[in-house]
């Protein structure tokens, strides 16, 4: 395999100018591919993003891998990215998609010291909504195979793991509230808090999601369509909650602040209810927040995964181990319950984003990119 990788590496070096090269089994890597690109900045994903065909397949540099994506992860913040909120100075067109999972189909010479053609890798890197993505070998994570479960760990799992470890100060017997608990990242916050021997309350929007939360060990699922979250918390948890993993924002954020116990911690993981405001930018409602926190010596702490990338590899390795040992549920939602069926192909990313914002998903939304028929890989 290593010899073949070297031969392939040489092929890239020799033929790169011709923009036509062969994979190690002799089948052609196409010269052109499809990818999604932000062509106009907007938090309306369909308005912002265009499916482009006939884009050149990128060439890996010396330390890079060329990955053929088999699964790509959909994240709530794809619409913050399409709105240009990550870097307002970047002008469209720009690539989109935070994470992918697939096979190495080509690699540069120094990358071949640690990776080989045919190997399965997962990665966190901009531009994943494409058939092929160039990934620096230094950030690629080897995985046992291309199961979509592994993709759930890159953004969703790592966010829960790192934020709770860095900021949650979880201890046995504490009470933890997780909002959007049956979603991509919420499912991991629930399980990690249970592993820390905490009592876990989780909010979600349906009976089926409550049943899923029960299977994760969640002690008190709350269907916010059937029960008023604030009332349940006041009635059943009069002493308050010690930690909140909060990602919904708006009224839910206020309910969570009011529910904090003395010395409680509220981790602001996101505020999905505000991402699509017609006014564009939607700041957290900070109304009477400072006074409320001061009265309890409670803290509100922001968390953005990109600021903790130095912890990312360790987090994913730890979660991968739990997952392969069968000690972590990595629920994937491939859209099988959507009326139009499974999310297959880049064109279905649009439908997958709508599905998330309708609150339909249980677990992490993943889009499958079926292998193209001409490839032998
Ligand atoms: P997800 O939880 O898989 O899906 C979002 C869930 O939020 C939906 O299933 C739905 O759950 C609820 N929801 C959807 N639209 C809503 C709306 N308009 N108002 C209120 N609730 C709504 O998504 P995710 O990608 O894992 O992200 C979840 C949250 O974590 C987001 O706020 C995201 O920005 C945040 N996040 C932050 C970081 C970071 O670095 N800080 C990293 C990853 C994710 P129910 O219907 O069951 O309530
Ligand atoms: C440099 O640090 C950041 C942090 C957050 C740059 C951009 C953002 C951002 O766009 C985000 C974001 C990113 C990830 C995530 O999971 C949730 C959120 S919420 C958000 C944001 C939304 C609306 C705004 O007006 C500002 C930020």
C-alpha termini separation: 13 Å
User: CATH fold name of the largest domain, please?
Assistant: Quinone Oxidoreductase, Chain A, domain 1
In N-to-C order, the SSE pattern is HEHEEHEEEEEHEHEHEHEHEHEHEHE
Named once each, the bound ligands are: NADP nicotinamide-adenine-dinucleotide phosphate, ligand X1H
CATH architecture of the largest domain: Alpha-Beta Complex
* Strand runs, count: 16
Oligomer: single chain
By helix and strand content, what is the structural category? alpha/beta
Q: How many independent structural domains?
A: 2
The general outline is: globular
Assign the CATH superfamily of the largest domain: Medium-chain alcohol dehydrogenases, catalytic domain
Q: What share of the residues lie within helices?
A: 25-40%
Explain this structure:
The protein folds into 2 domains: 2-146 and 331-368, Medium-chain alcohol dehydrogenases, catalytic domain (Quinone Oxidoreductase, Chain A, domain 1), CATH 3.90.180.10; 156-306, Rossmann fold (3-Layer(aba) Sandwich), CATH 3.40.50. The protein is built from 11 helices and 16 strands. It is of the alpha/beta class and 377 residues long. Mean pLDDT is 91; it is low at 1-22 and 373-377. The strands form 3 sheets. Strands 3, 5, 6, 7, 8, 15 and 16 form a 7-stranded mixed beta sheet that branches. A 6-stranded parallel beta sheet has the order 11-10-9-12-13-14, with helices on both faces.
């Amino acid at each position: 395999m290593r010899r073949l990788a070297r031969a392939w590496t040489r092929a890239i070096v020799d033929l790169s100018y011709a923009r036509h090269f062969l994979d190690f089994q002799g089948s052609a890597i196409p010269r052109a591919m499809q990818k999604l690109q932000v062509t106009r900045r907007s938090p309306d994903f369909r308005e912002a993003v265009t499916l482009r065909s006939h884009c050149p397949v990128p060439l890996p540099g010396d330390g890079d891998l060329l990955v053929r994506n088999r699964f790509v992860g959909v994240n709530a913040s794809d619409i913050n990215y399409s709105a240009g909120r990550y870097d307002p100075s970047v002008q469209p067109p720009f690539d989109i998609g935070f994470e992918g999972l697939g096979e190495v189909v080509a690699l540069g010479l120094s990358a071949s010291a640690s990776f080989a053609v045919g190997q399965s890798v997962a990665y966190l890197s901009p531009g994943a909504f494409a058939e092929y993505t160039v990934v620096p070998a230094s950030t690629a994570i080897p995985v046992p195979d291309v199961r979509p479960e592994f993709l759930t760990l890159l953004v969703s799992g790592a966010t829960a793991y790192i934020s709770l470890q860095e900021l949650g100060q979880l201890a046995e017997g504490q009470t933890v509230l997780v909002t959007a608990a049956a979603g991509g990242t919420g499912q991991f916050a629930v399980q990690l808090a249970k592993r820390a021997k905490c009592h876990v309350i989780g909010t979600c929007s349906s009976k089926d999601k409550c049943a899923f939360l029960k299977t994760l060990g969640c002690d008190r699922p709350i269907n916010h369509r059937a029960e008023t979250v604030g009332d349940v918390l006041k009635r059943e948890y009069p002493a308050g909650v010690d930690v909140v993993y909060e990602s919904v924002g708006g009224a839910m954020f206020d309910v969570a602040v009011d529910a904090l116990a003395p010395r409680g911690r509220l981790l602001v993981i996101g505020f999905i209810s505000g991402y699509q405001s017609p006014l564009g930018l939607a700041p957290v409602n900070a109304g009477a927040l400072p006074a409320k926190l001061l009265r309890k010596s409670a803290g509100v702490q922001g968390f953005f995964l990109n600021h903790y990338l130095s912890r990312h590899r360790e987090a994913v390795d730890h979660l991968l181990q739990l997952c392969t040992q069968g000690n972590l549920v990595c629920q994937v939602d491939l859209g099988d319950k959507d009326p139009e069926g499974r999310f297959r192909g880049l064109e279905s990313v649009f439908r997958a984003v709508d599905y998330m914002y309708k609150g339909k998903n249980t677990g992490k939304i993943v889009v499958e990119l079926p292998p193209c028929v001409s490839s032998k890989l």
